[in-house]
Amino acid sequence: MKIAIIGAGSLGLLFASRFIIHSDENIYLITKTEEQKRLIQKEKLYLQEIDGTNYSLNVKVYSQFDHGQTVDWIFLTVKQTNIAGIETTIKKWSDKHTKVICFQNGMGHFEYLKQKISNPVYLAVTTEGALRKAGNHIRHTGKGEIWLGRLEEQTDGSIEDLLSLLDQAGFRAFYSEKIKEKIWHKLVINAVINPLTALFEVKNGELIEDPYLKTLSNQLLSEIIRVLRKAEVPIDENIANAIEQVCIQTKDNESSMLQDLRRGQMTEIDSILKPIIDLGIRNHLTTTLLESIRLMVHAKENQLAKRKW
């Protein structure tokens, strides 16, 4: 099996390193920049596991500007903000039989890709935790699950081989016939945890340990639930408990949105909050808190960008 991993952020580096360690498959890592490619070529890929075990790994690494070859699966692990134009890289590494798995937060990437490529597209939701310490250094911070599914045509038998490979690499991976519900579930969790930890520059656990942040989290969740129920979007009745459990299990982790701000990068705030805000607009509901938080995150992005100059 040949797998191309497009996107060398935290999740992409985690997949690449785990596959290299635990399988004999052909794994290709595609970076956004030539600089990161040269770093990995020169200093190898470095993985620190949860138990403290360290690995230094050789990896077949390319940049998005290089010519590719046909693979069986593409793991698309770029951020939602980098989806536009990614079809150019996908086409370098695929033919009509290549399947694409999207690991983006938020909504909108599926509709975009279906307009740009003819490949079968799978959607994925994961609760794996990883922190990119450098362009070639990844730390595995928390074990979770991976759920794969399709919104349109039924899957074929090849998904079983991929699930087996993921299991072999130490991931708990499953196929879901209700992937859209799982995407909404993950979106709600992200919509509460990501923006608040980013705005207040705190680790996930602070959202339940600080009484003011906990109250704010509950108010934000209440507004989200009101919108989703009005729009008849299926939502887990225990979603509040699910968010609390994520905060407990990842209490020492920094959310991806906070990491983006620390690196001076644009966040995925619109991909996470706008789908909910837009649902509210279509159902004649006000989403004052959601819109205020969205604007505050954008304001913080702008302020940090000014400081860089």
UniProtKB/TrEMBL annotation:
InterPro entries: 6-PGluconate_DH-like_C_sf, 6PGD_dom2, ApbA, Ketopantoate_reductase, KPA_reductase, KPR_N, NAD(P)-bd_dom_sf. The keyword ATP-binding does not apply. Keywords: NADP, Oxidoreductase, Pantothenate biosynthesis. Residues 179-301 form the Ketopantoate reductase C-terminal domain. GO terms for cellular component: cytoplasm. It comes from Tepidibacillus fermentans. It comes from the Bacteria. Pfam families: ApbA, ApbA_C. It catalyses: (R)-pantoate + NADP(+) = 2-dehydropantoate + NADPH + H(+). The lineage of its organism: Bacteria, Bacillati, Bacillota, Bacilli, Bacillales. This is 2-dehydropantoate 2-reductase. Belongs to the ketopantoate reductase family. Its EC number is 1.1.1.169. Residues 3-152 form the Ketopantoate reductase N-terminal domain. One of its GO terms (biological process) is pantothenate biosynthetic process. Pathway: Cofactor biosynthesis; (R)-pantothenate biosynthesis; (R)-pantoate from 3-methyl-2-oxobutanoate: step 2/2. The keyword NADP applies.
